[in-house]
Amino acid sequence: MYWKASARRYSSVTPGVPDELQPPACVMQTGSVEESFTVRAFILSVLLLLAAMPAAFAAQSPAPSPMEQNRAESSSPQQEKPAYSLPPDKLARAIAYSRIRVILDFASSAWGILQLILLLALGVVARMRNAAVHLNQNRWAQGFAFTLLLLLVTTVLNLPFDLYGQHAALVYGQSVQGWGSWTWDMTKGFLLTFVFGGLLVMLLFRVIRWSPTRWWFWFWIPAMIFVLIAVFVAPVLIDPLFNKFEPLAKTNPALVDRLEQVVARGGIQIPPDRMFLMKASEKVTTLNAYVTGYGASKRVVVWDNSIRKATPDEISFIFGHEMGHYVLNHIPATLIFLGVLLLVEFYLGYRGVQWLLARYGVRWKIPSQQDWGALVALLLVISVLSFFSEPIVNGYSRMHEHEADVYGQEAIHGIVSDPQKVARQSFQLLGEMSLTDPNPNPFVEFWTFSHPSVSSRAAFAANYNPWIKGQHPKYFEK
Length: 478
Ligand SMILES: [Zn+2]
Description:
By secondary structure, this protein is mainly alpha-helical. It has 17 helices and 4 strands. Strands 1-2-4-3 form a 4-stranded mixed β-sheet. Helix 6 (139-171) packs antiparallel against helix 7 (179-210), helix 7 (179-210) packs antiparallel against helix 8 and helix 8 (215-242) packs across helix 13 (330-364). Zinc ion is lined by residues 1-3, 26, 34-35, 321, 325, 401, 404.
């Protein structure tokens, strides 16, 4: 549900934190964290927690653009200017930055898998296990010690990617966060991952000992409860650890009034005290807005950058898009979708660990799935599964994003004078601010984009007008 644009991983909001784990943002941008509102971010964070234990916990993600290529295709016979385009200098930078992000994305995924194989094969995991076991008889001490060692090692191994991602964000003007602040964010992410990851590890091994052949199902239940709780408390307890929030009405009462018009048209209830301003400008330059939480923690968050750079009409459209996610029940639907996926991954993780240990257990010095070291084998299997399920998760997300785009445009009909123009301009602004490549590689888009490409969203917006054509809006009476 973020309103973001597209790729993920290495966003600049919470540096070093994979976008999946980053806080929500659905700016108009397009996509990724865009999209992901916190729910997805947190579910994926549990997946990743179990899958790679990177230092990450927050959840947001701005992430934008992937690569070029297919540039030739775009110079087709169309005479008109595309709905989204960049001037030559910006285009060159967008292509270069997109390429960096795509390479970082795929390279870090591959490295995440390879490093686990190396840690197992080189006996590092067995040594960490020995150190944890010799430390103390107490299982809690052993579990947390092993988790800490694993986290430390993987964090160091992933650091080059994190550092380079933040460096590129600074060079390309996507981030304005100093290295001290960045390091502090990384540290907070590490500590959160250690505490909650350690608890999950303790629970996992307890369940494995209790039900050696069915643990994949019995552990899935508390894991889902953990996700539900995490999504609920994130806006209140986690997000404020990384960014500052204040009531939107405090500084932008006129905007709140305008957004309430959009809310009223949608026939739902989002009182002004559920609208917040996030001081994103302290860390990034990109735009975003998102919905997050549910029940008593449900809220709409608008980044201060958006207010500074977008017009009230454009913010209304972005907001309408976000509102669409709530009205169309994308959050519960996504929870169910990812919950089923998680169950499948746990089952395959169980089978995969059995197979790996039967084949390599002696060499790796990991005798059974009850050994702490088996955690790394499980993470390896889930990392591989997560990578190959990316297109499925992102395809599902893009479907929701498109629906939210349609909803957003319909939601501002009658409130802004020209919804087509406003929506197209919003995407133009988003794309420019996040240096989004107008012509991303189709494969990269298919695999890594949580939102449709900015170009396709802008083109759709520019042409979507069910009122003039005598058609009927999809989500509204008129
Ligand atoms: Zn969205």
